Structure to design on (433 residues):
């Protein structure tokens, strides 16, 4: 049923205009005790314990930070099971049976506008840390660390570009909740004492531009601006977005904060709104399930911890079962192939692309240079491939600047010989560690 090979197809089921379906009541949710950023973790609950929505039920520990684990339903802990995490590792998950009562933990309560106005940067650090807010565009970088920067921030840049093809989770979020996004921008503005917020969206999405500009009329005088940037990939790469959106060139190896710029994904800024206004951790997220391999591509608002299998079933299941499917968690360019469809949707999963497999045979490199010309980071993917094949760690470490690779997938996409160059880049990154 599920093939391993990566594939980009011409998906015709575009979901941009489809309203979000709220799929927030699964029978069970699965919450990982560890993840890719936090290799250690502990559970505060045991099988049989009753839990509430938003209750802290464990703690993940990474080398530099910790992340509380929150229950995303109210119900009962029924098991600790091993499942594959999106990172590909077999991981322990707390399995919680939903009682469908949506009983909130007492910690989730509204802050008045007066209380919010008094919040300091330190309060923002504390709240986002306790709410376990991370980069919801997929980076999973802890948001509280961004609030800890000591660099003066002049401009906050919101990434609403969603540049990977066929994903529309952020698109629908902006269309359906522009006020939360703008309010979240104003909270970030307050925390950093910044001068302006620039929300970047693709030029071609007139509907997003109209929605945001109409909503901004309610916030008269707010220094929040909408900037239309390129329609190409990887326009959403923060370095590229800062260049086209703000006209600032960020040199390689320099953090945008050093130039007075702080970037948040649009989903993260909506998560910031929830954290500040309601003291609410990330319990639900927007998620797109699309591709020519499922019957009804759909945009969802889902409960974090929902099984992907349930989402696929909701979409009517797979198209023609006789064809092998390719499942990609994330976008078709940067996402990770899944070998099974019982993965768990974590808070940083934006989408799943399900394709009918089209067999492509790799051919030898013809030295056309397409991969080199297309690399946005100015690297030499073909040389990276050769060094990996030769197990030449020294060259990878010292000459090929593999750290600058953003695993964007462009080299694989443009390769004349259909070589999976990005896989070699991934291997090279591991070899360089
Ligand atoms: S994945 Fe390929 S194209 Fe993208 S940055 Fe890395 S080497 Fe360059
Ligand atoms: S694009 Fe493919 S065929 Fe062309 S130089 Fe790069 S690896 Fe070789």
């Amino acid at each position: 049923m599920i093939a391993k090979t990566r594939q980009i197809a011409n998906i015709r089921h575009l979901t941009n205009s489809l309203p979000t379906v709220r799929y927030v009541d699964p029978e069970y949710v699965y919450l990982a005790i560890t993840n890719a950023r936090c290799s250690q973790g502990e559970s505060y609950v045991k099988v049989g314990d009753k839990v509430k929505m938003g209750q802290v039920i464990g703690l993940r520990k990474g080398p530099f930070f910790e992340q509380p684990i929150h229950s995303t339903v109210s119900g009962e802990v029924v098991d600790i099971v091993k499942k594959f995490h999106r990172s590909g590792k077999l991981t322990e998950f707390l399995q919680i049976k939903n009682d469908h009562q949506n009983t909130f933990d007492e910690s989730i309560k509204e802050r008045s506008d007066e209380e919010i106005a008094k919040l300091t940067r330190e309060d923002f650090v504390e709240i986002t840390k306790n709410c376990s807010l991370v980069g919801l565009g997929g980076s999973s970088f802890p948001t509280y660390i961004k609030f800890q920067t000591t660099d003066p921030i002049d401009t906050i840049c919101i990434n609403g570009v969603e540049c990977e093809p066929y994903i529309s989770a952020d698109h629908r979020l902006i269309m359906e909740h522009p006020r939360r996004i703008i309010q979240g921008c104003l909270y970030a503005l307050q925390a950093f004492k910044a001068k302006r917020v620039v929300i970047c969206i693709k030029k071609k999405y007139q509907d997003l531009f109209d929605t945001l500009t109409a909503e901004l009329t309610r916030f008269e005088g707010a220094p929040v601006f909408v900037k239309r940037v390129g329609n190409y990939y990887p326009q959403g790469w923060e370095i590229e977005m800062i260049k086209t959106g703000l006209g600032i060139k960020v040199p390689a190896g320099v953090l945008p904060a050093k130039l007075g710029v702080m970037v948040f994904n649009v989903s993260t800024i909506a998560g910031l709104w929830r954290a500040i206004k309601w003291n609410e951790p990330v319990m639900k997220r927007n998620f797109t399930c699309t591709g020519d391999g499922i019957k009804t591509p759909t945009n969802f608002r889902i409960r974090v911890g929902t099984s992907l299998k349930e989402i696929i079933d909701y979409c009517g299941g797979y198209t023609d079962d006789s064809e092998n499917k390719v499942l990609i968690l994330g976008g078709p360019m940067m996402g990770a192939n899944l070998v099974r469809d019982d993965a768990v949707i974590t808070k940083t999963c934006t989408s799943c692309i399900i394709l009918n497999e089209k067999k492509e045979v790799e051919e030898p490199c013809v030295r056309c240079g397409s991969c080199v010309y297309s690399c946005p980071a100015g690297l030499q993917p073909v040389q990276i491939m050769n060094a990996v094949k030769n197990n030449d760690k020294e060259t990878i470490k010292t000459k090929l600047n593999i750290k600058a690779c953003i695993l964007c997938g462009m080299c694989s996409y443009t390769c004349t010989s259909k070589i999976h160059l990005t896989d070699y880049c991934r291997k090279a990154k591991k070899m360089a560690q």
Summary: Confidence is low (pLDDT under 50) at residues 1-10. The chain has three domains: 2-105+282-356, 113-278, 370-431. The pocket of iron/sulfur cluster (ligand 2) is lined by residues 365-371, 382, 415-417, 419, 421 (CB under 6 Å). Residues 370-431 form one domain.
